[in-house]
Amino acid sequence: MKVRNSTYPKDEEYVRKLFDQCHDQIFPVSGLMLQQKAEDFAKEIDSNIQFKAGNGWLENFKKMHNIVFRKLCGENASADESFYEEWLSELPSLLKDYKSDDVFNADKTGLFFQCLPNKTAAFKGEEYHGGKQSKFRVTVLLTSSYDRTIQKAKVLC
Question: What is the CA radius of gyration of the chain?
C-alpha cells in the first residue's frame, strides 16, 4: 500500500499528538477513536470542511506513523505507587468501625462453559475452520472476607 501525503497535515499532527499522549499514559486507543478525533479537529478548524476520516485515512495514518493495533493482554502496566501507599495508610482508619467478619472483597466474573479451544493441531497446508463458539455463560460473584472465612460463590442471573 502506497503512503500518500496528507491533505490535512494539521489534523494529522493533532491526532498524532493525541495518540502520543494516550500512548505515554498507557491509555488504550482504538482506530474509531482516532478517526473521530480527526473529524472533530477538522470541524474545529473549519466548520465548512468536508473531511471524512474513513478506513483508508486510518490505514494511511497508521503507515505514516508506524502504528499497529495489538490485542491487549492482562494488566501489566505499572500502578501508581503513591496512590497505593496512600490507600494503605488510609485503609485502617476506614475499617476501624467494622468487625473483621463484616469486611469483604467481591469481584464478578463470567464463567464460560461448553467452549471449544480456539487453536487446534492440523496438518501443514490443510485449511481448518472452527465452528461457532458456545455463548453459554454464568456470571459468578466471588467474595472473600477480611477474617478469611470461606464464602460460597454466588451465581448472578
Answer: 24
